[in-house]
């Protein structure tokens, strides 16, 4: 994994990085089906999965603050 990371210019690339990236891609490409991602990751709650993806309440509020509603 570290050789691939070096080739891609990524400082750290591990199996957990790939798991998290894969989960995020499933989330976005499944039309934001958090239940599916929760099941795939074997998480016990949607809140846990959202936090794992970096989409907890604080992150959501930060993203919303950046949107110009005109």
Any overview of this molecule?
With 70 residues, this protein is an all-alpha fold. The protein has one domain. Helices cover 66% and strands 0% of the residues. It is built from five helices and no strands. The radius of gyration is 15 Å and the shape is globular. The model has no long low-confidence stretch (mean pLDDT 85).
Q: Which features characterize this protein?
A:
single chain; 70 residues; mainly alpha; 5 helices; 66% helix
Summarize the helices and strands and which ones pair or pack.
Elements: H1 2-8, H2 15-29, H3 34-41, H4 46-52, H5 57-65
Helix pairs in contact: 2-3, 3-4
Protein name: Tyr recombinase domain-containing protein
InterPro entries: DNA_brk_join_enz (IPR011010), Integrase-like_cat_sf (IPR013762)
Organism: Lactiplantibacillus xiangfangensis
The share of residues in extended strands comes to under 5%
Helix content: 55-70%
Give Rg in angstroms.
15 Å
Low-confidence stretches: none
End-to-end separation: 45 Å
Q: Quick one: overall form?
A: globular
Count of DSSP helices? 5
Secondary-structure-based class equals mainly alpha
Q: Estimate the mean pLDDT confidence.
A: 85
Number of domains: 1
How many beta-strand runs? 0
Q: What is the helix/strand order?
A: HHHHH
User: What can be said about the biggest beta sheet?
Assistant: none
